[in-house]
């Protein structure tokens, strides 16, 4: 890949190429605010609706959400260490486990996740802002798509910068609303049926929360790859973990309260109602900036989608990742998700969320394989040059990673509980034996990670480590 200069104040020029040490201008303190705001938005609130909708009490819904977020964020945050260590986007590094061409298997799941999130976000924004302020759905969809596309085009530095600004504005607003909830000024009343505890409902809330942050796993090193090589694993993992888990726990708990005490069915409308009960117009401001944060997250999704598409193309035919290539790719992705979002009604949003459940099934075997390789097999030692050529030490098709991925996904199938997807649903035979509780992703994590670790016993890791000590020479 050709070496290109970074323009921190303009449109980013780098994409899937390696970031040299001389261009590592990132700061560790940027990470926590980025990931805090990444979950400090409208999408997080309805995650707290899951438990109450199944009869789970407010307290147990919050406990399930907290434990789920803490579990899912562990897997997400550990990917952050790969950015400063290698200076590469997440899916380029995955070539070490799956091969130069074999990486297209997890790339499919990753790209679909990015697009599905943005389709869901676009529909949620249109419905939420129309219901809250009466604004035109068409105008909301156009503005959010264009804004997200522009943010992705300007790239890494601007995503960090915009997220920090939005956090400074939204944090005090949401804090006042939450204090109003705690001290009884946000309205609401105890429900006639306070709910209780059932294992199936608790696991549904737990799994929804865990899945929420696990689906962030393909993003993380994309936003840590500009950090200096000497950034410690402990500092970057802790920063990402605290940021991503703190805001998600906060808003999931708030969402559960809105569902139980206010009977909210739309997170944005519920937030507006609660906030306005505390102080006139506070809810409107909190709802608007929560929606703005979600629109900014769409830009993050578009940026990751661009990296995924270019990685996929490069895996078939080597390309020069120019600024033009990344801009054209982002524009194309924006058009695709905009048109898909326009084609579905608000009633079909549940179909999009169901498809995200399917993507979790596809992403879990990848994240298990990737993390086991980085922390337990190759221990962060990779030959950067060979990640960019099909005939390097990682090969075109890496059978160990592909086998582990297939084994993990196959093991998930009997435990899957897939809700309605275009009139079709599926509950695995083993899931039926445990009251239709979906633990497939847990099974997938264990099987994929274990199989990959076992198969990697035959890897000549020492020889690879010696090769990794050579100076980085990325091919043009």
Task: Report what the structure shows.
Helix content is about 65%, strand content about 0%. By secondary structure, it is mainly alpha-helical. The chain has a domain at about 30-350: Hydantoin permease (Orthogonal Bundle), CATH 1.10.4160.10. Strands 1-2 form a two-stranded antiparallel sheet. Helix 3 runs antiparallel to helix 11 (about 235-260), helix 7 (about 105-135) packs across helix 8 and helix 8 (about 135-155) packs across helix 13. The chain is globular, with a radius of gyration of 22 Å.
SSE inventory with pairings:
Layout: H1 31-39, H2 50-53, H3 58-78, H4 82-86, H5 90-93, H6 95-98, H7 104-133, H8 137-154, H9 156-182, H10 199-214, H11 233-261, H12 267-278, H13 282-316, H14 323-343, H15 349-377, H16 399-412, E1 417-421, E2 424-427, H17 429-432, H18 440-455, H19 461-468
Antiparallel strand pairs: 1-2
Describe the structure in brief.
The chain is mainly α and 476 residues long. The protein has helices at 31-39, 50-53, 58-78, 82-86, 90-93, 95-98, 104-133, 137-154, 156-182, 199-214, 233-261, 267-278, 282-316, 323-343, 349-377, 399-412, 429-432, 440-455, 461-468, and strands at residues 417-421, 424-427.
């Amino acid at each position: 890949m050709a070496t290109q200069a970074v323009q921190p104040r303009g449109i980013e020029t780098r994409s899937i190429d390696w970031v040299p040490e001389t261009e590592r201008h990132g700061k560790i303190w940027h990470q926590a605010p980025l990931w805090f705001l990444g979950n400090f938005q409208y999408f997080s609130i309805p995650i707290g609706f899951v438990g109450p909708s199944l009869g789970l009490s407010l307290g147990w819904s919050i406990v399930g959400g907290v434990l789920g977020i803490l579990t899912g964020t562990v897997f997400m945050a550990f990917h952050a260490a790969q950015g400063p260590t290698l200076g590469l986007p997440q899916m380029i590094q995955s070539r070490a486990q799956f091969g130069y061409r074999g990486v297209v298997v997890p790339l499919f799941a990753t790209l679909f996740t990015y697009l599905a999130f943005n389709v869901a976000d676009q529909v949620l924004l249109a419905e939420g802002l129309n219901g809250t302020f009466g604004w035109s759905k068409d105008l909301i969809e156009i503005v959010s798509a264009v804004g997200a596309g522009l943010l992705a085009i300007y790239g890494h530095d601007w995503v960090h910068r915009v997220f920090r600004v939005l956090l400074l504005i939204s944090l005090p607003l949401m804090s006042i609303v939450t204090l109003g909830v705690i001290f009884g000024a946000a309205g609401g009343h105890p429900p006639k049926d306070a709910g209780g505890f059932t294992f199936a409902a608790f696991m549904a809330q737990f799994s929804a929360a865990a899945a929420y942050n696990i689906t962030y796993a393909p993003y993380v090193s994309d936003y840590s790859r500009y950090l200096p090589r000497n950034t410690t694993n402990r500092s970057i993992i802790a920063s990402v973990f605290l940021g991503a888990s703190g805001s998600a726990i906060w808003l999931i708990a708030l969402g559960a309260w809105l569902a139980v005490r206010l009977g909210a069915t739309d997170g944005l409308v519920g937030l507006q109602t609660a906030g306005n009960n505390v102080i006139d117009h506070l809810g409107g401001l909190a709802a608007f900036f929560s929606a703005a944060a979600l629109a900014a997250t769409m830009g993050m999704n578009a940026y990751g989608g661009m990296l995924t598409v270019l990685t996929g193309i490069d895996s078939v035919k080597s390309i020069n990742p120019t600024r033009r290539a990344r801009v054209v790719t982002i524009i194309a992705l924006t058009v695709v998700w905009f048109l898909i979002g326009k084609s579905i009604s608000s009633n079909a949003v549940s179909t999009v969320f169901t498809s995200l459940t399917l993507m979790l099934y596809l992403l879990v075997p990848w994240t298990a394989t990737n993390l086991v390789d980085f922390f337990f097999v190759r221990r962060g030692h990779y030959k950067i040059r060979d990640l960019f050529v099909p005939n390097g030490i990682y090969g075109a098709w890496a059978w160990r990673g592909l086998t582990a991925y297939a084994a993990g996904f196959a093991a998930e199938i009997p435990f899957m509980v897939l809700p309605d997807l275009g009139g079709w649903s599926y509950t695995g035979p083993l899931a039926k034996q445990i009251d239709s509780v979906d633990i497939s992703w847990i099974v997938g994590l264990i099987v994929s990670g274990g199989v990959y670790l076992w198969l990697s016993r035959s890897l000549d890791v020492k020889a690879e480590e010696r090769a990794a000590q050579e100076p980085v020479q990325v091919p043009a």
